[in-house]
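FAQ

Q: What does a record look like?
A: Structure on top, sequence underneath. For example:
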């Protein structure tokens, strides 16, 4: 039995419930159906906003992974199926380069029948995540040029109200006029609409996270052939090629099977047996 046959025997002819109300199935379903052999369905009347929104009017339920789990569990409760899939994204300053915006997407899958859960992820600085104060339509239009409007939607808000999903100049002008009329504020806020159906750039990263999930599932245990033989620990200590002392760079990764528990250490995951002296705290203090 080859790799794909093994995965198909695990998932084939089953239904995977995708917890989305923002058209994520457009990029996720083709990959999941081809690689896992499942039929992806999106439940009707599913409200994933109850687990948190990017516009901050509803606080996210737990951390990023916990919110994704809540979505998948809710979708399964609505349908009675046994495979739940969801995704959750975060946006904000890059942890190492705070002046650069970044996006982290995770895609989570739970299989109740096989007592199996796993998530994939994708992290990128390729995002148009942005906000700005505006006083008139001209300033709003300049912002829109920067963020790829109208292919990418925008949101306009006052202190008391917001209008989402703006994808035409006419909608933009109407939103600004209405909010200015209702509000005593001199300035409104305009921001990118980060919901997947209004943000093709984000949708690409959701697709990448879905592929990462599939890659993890296709990593089979060398002992029992169970899917999801994935990294659970990364060990530092890659030796410097100049002085031979240990650095903070990764030397090995520890993989663990979700079923039989066997572990394996794989050396030099980045393909280098020695660190560059320029990355050594002793050679380059």
């Amino acid at each position: 039995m080859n790799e794909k046959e093994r995965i198909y025997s695990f998932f084939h002819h089953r239904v995977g419930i995708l917890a989305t109300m923002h058209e994520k199935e457009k990029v996720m379903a083709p990959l999941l159906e081809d690689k896992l052999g499942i039929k992806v369905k999106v439940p009707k009347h599913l409200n994933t906003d109850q687990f948190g929104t990017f516009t901050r009017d509803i606080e996210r339920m737990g951390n990023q992974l916990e919110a994704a789990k809540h979505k998948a569990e809710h979708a399964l409760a609505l349908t009675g199926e046994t495979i739940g899939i969801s995704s959750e994204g975060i946006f904000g300053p890059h942890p190492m380069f705070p002046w650069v915006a970044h996006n982290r997407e995770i895609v989570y899958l739970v299989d109740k029948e096989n007592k199996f859960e796993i998530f994939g992820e994708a992290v990128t600085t390729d995002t148009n995540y942005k906000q700005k104060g505006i006083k008139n339509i001209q300033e709003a239009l300049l912002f829109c040029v920067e963020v790829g409007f109208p292919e990418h939607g925008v949101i306009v808000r006052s202190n008391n109200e917001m209008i989402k999903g703006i994808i035409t100049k006419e909608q933009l002008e109407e939103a600004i006029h209405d909010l200015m009329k209702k509000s005593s504020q001199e300035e409104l806020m305009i921001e990118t609409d980060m919901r997947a159906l209004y943000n093709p750039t984000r949708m690409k990263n959701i697709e990448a996270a879905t592929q990462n999930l599939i890659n993890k599932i296709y990593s089979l245990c060398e002992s029992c052939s169970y899917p999801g033989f994935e990294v659970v620990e990364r060990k530092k200590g890659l030796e410097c090629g100049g002085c031979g002392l240990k650095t903070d760079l990764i030397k090995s990764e520890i993989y663990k099977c979700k079923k039989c528990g066997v572990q394996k250490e794989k050396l030099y995951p980045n393909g280098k047996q020695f660190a560059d002296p320029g990355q050594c705290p002793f050679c380059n203090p």
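Q: Is there anything notable about this one?
A: The chain has six helices and twelve strands.
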